[in-house]
Design goal:
single chain, about 230 residues
């Protein structure tokens, strides 16, 4: 289980929870949007409302700064920044298990609930939502820079290492960069994570690439291979 970071500002946190979570859960699981009946959104794996909220709290634990980080505690963050972090966490918790068409509908309703200004740019300040890419799943909120950034800006250029085994080569893409970011945050707060996707989408390669950078003095890596029927 996970509890919200002790530094999480309770008043704005409660307000944001009430603003976003109940209507989004109704939309996903019950097919209710603003009092209207609409088709339920399909998920790649079955997931309950409790599990979605748990995932949200885990991501907030991971993304909210601890005491001493980013020049101060989470309590010192302004309301716009707190809401931007919360929206980013909503995308990868409540919106994480959704299929692609469901993510588009989720994104539209999330923006409607947010009722914030927009910026047609690959970056934007906390008080605005970026719209140059199709959905908010194409962005993350950088606390270090205090702005929304497109994942495409975070993709590092591929530099070939002739000494590296062919099986260890991973060319960075938006998808691998996003997955790596999530995995590293979960490792930092010691939370489990499962990557779900079709064959050939670099799930195994991404995980192995992250694990190659893990401190072997404090971590034991155990690889277990399963067949496609497992």
């Amino acid at each position: 289980s996970s509890g919200i970071n002790a530094e999480w500002p309770l008043r704005p946190g409660h307000r944001l929870f009430q603003k976003y979570v109940p209507p989004l859960l109704e939309f996903i699981l019950e097919g209710v949007m603003g009092g209207r009946n609409v088709p339920k959104l399909k998920t790649i794996v079955p997931i309950s409302d409790l599990r979605m909220v748990t995932q949200l709290s885990i991501l907030l634990d991971a993304l909210m700064p601890d005491q001493g980080e980013t020049g101060g505690a989470a309590a010192a963050l302004d309301c716009d920044t707190i809401e931007a972090i919360f929206i980013s966490c909503l995308c990868f918790s409540l919106g994480g298990p959704l299929l692609e068409d469901g993510r588009v509908k989720f994104d539209e309703y999330l923006k409607q609930l947010a009722a914030l200004g927009t910026s047609n740019s690959d970056t934007s300040r906390p008080s605005e939502l970026p719209t140059s890419k199709p959905t908010l799943f194409d962005y993350f909120f950088s606390l270090e820079e205090n702005q929304w950034k497109a994942w495409s800006l975070a993709v590092e250029p591929y530099i070939h290492d002739p000494e590296r085994l062919f099986t260890e080569i991973l060319v960075p893409t938006v998808d691998t960069t996003r997955a790596t970011w999530l995995i590293e945050h979960m490792i930092r707060i010691r939370q489990p994570i499962v990557l779900v996707g079709e064959t050939g989408t670099s799930k195994t390669a991404t995980v192995q690439d992250v694990l190659r950078g893990v401190d072997r003095d404090s971590n034991l890596i155990l690889n277990i291979n399963f067949s496609s029927r497992t």
